[in-house]
Automatic annotation (TrEMBL):
Name of the protein in question: Cell division ATP-binding protein FtsE
GO molecular function, one term: transmembrane transporter activity
Function of the molecule: Part of the ABC transporter FtsEX involved in cellular division. Important for assembly or stability of the septal ring.
Domain of life: Bacteria
Similarity field: Belongs to the ABC transporter superfamily.
GO cellular-component term (any): plasma membrane
SUPFAM superfamilies the UniProt entry points to: P-loop containing nucleoside triphosphate hydrolases
Organism: Sulfurimonas marina
């Protein structure tokens, strides 16, 4: 479902990834492990077509992304990818409901369809009572739940999470892990970039891939 073939990526003269070959199957849960600066975010950005490789090819669900035009890249992301960021990236002066529905704006769905999707996610992530609150007034754990809801509102096949627990305490991190487990049971393909040891002992993680200085560790 996801293939990175002979990937090299440099930012000007900084080599971020070197000779990366990876493939992920549909429904797999993968932990990308590595210290800060090892290249994890760059891999997630290539899979979501936010960045293009310097050389090599990225194929997601049959689509070649290495040279995809920006317009098609945003369409590709909207249809296929849910992204969960370290700092949640919520819009502070928008309500919880507006934040969750944001990725659907370009789709012109009916009010009824938007409401159905919203209600399902508000129930699923225990956010009903906060739906009209500004996201800036929520706790870290609540913000993270909004971020997950927003990441899956477009019903993506692929979920990418970049250091999702780095701002959460242990209890909330374990809650996040339970939410990821539930998404895996829906056959989502999930890649989590993290150096949080909590992710290294989970029995439902299919593979842990370690990256060091832009290269895969054997
Ligand atoms: N826009 C950029 N310009 C120049 N160098 C960059 C840029 N983005 C990343 N890098 C460098 O590329 C390397 C890999 O960065 P990347 O963000 O992929 O690592 P990471 O493992 O995700 O780290 P972190 O957990 O800190 O985000 C690092 O050395 C980083 O400094």
């Amino acid at each position: 479902m996801i293939q990175l073939i002979d990937i090299n990526k440099s930012y000007k003269d900084k080599i971020a990834l070197k000779d990366i070959n990876l493939s992920f199957k549909e429904g797999e849960l993968i932990v990308l492990k590595g210290v800060s600066g090892s290249g994890k975010t760059t891999i997630l950005s290539l899979i979501s077509a936010l960045l293009k490789p310097t050389s090599g090819e990225v194929i997601v669900d049959g689509k070649k992304l290495a040279k995809i035009a920006d317009h098609f890249a945003s369409e590709f992301r909207r249809d296929n990818i849910g992204f969960i960021f370290q700092r949640y990236n919520l819009i502070p002066n928008m309500s919880v409901a507006e934040n969750i529905l944001l990725p659907l704006r370009p789709l012109n769905l009916s009010k009824k369809e938007l409401q159905t999707r919203l209600e399902r996610l508000l129930d699923m992530y225990k956010l009903q009572e906060y739906k009209d609150n500004y996201s800036q007034n929520l706790s870290g754990g609540q913000q993270q739940r909004v971020a997950i809801a927003r990441a899956i509102v477009n019903n993506p096949k692929i979920i990418l999470a970049d250091e999702p627990t780095s701002n959460l305490d242990r209890e909330l991190s374990l809650e996040f892990i339970e939410q990821i487990k539930a998404l895996k049971s829906e056959n989502k393909t999930i890649i989590i970039a993290t150096h949080d040891p909590l992710f290294f002992e989970l029995d439902f993680v299919d593979r842990i891939i370690e990256i060091e200085n832009g290269q895969l560790k054997a």
